[in-house]
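Table S2 (text version). Query chain:
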Amino acid sequence: MTEDSDGPTWPPTVFEMFQDTGEQAVEQQQELFKQMFTGMSGGVDMNDLGAMTNTATFKTRVQSGGRISIPDAEREALDIEEGDIVQTVVIPVKRNRSE
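Corresponding structure-token output:
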């Protein structure tokens, strides 16, 4: 934040705490992906850490025919274009159906 900002100003220790927490979350997410992909036959080569830094996490709805969409911002950030092959890990978040 700059001094010209109208928003709240955070003491440096609070900012550093948020930054550290964010970095720890990224490290934990990368470790989770590493564990998941290591157990998959024919999965990602874990020696290629570039694959771990080029990931996105987002929520989307399942559309007709089981289709899902990758949001524009994620496609741009990861340079994904139509026809590219991507690997997807699906974890159900919420079901909107009565059972």
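Notes on Table S2: The chain is about 40% helix and 0% strand. Residues 12-38 form the longest helix (27 residues).
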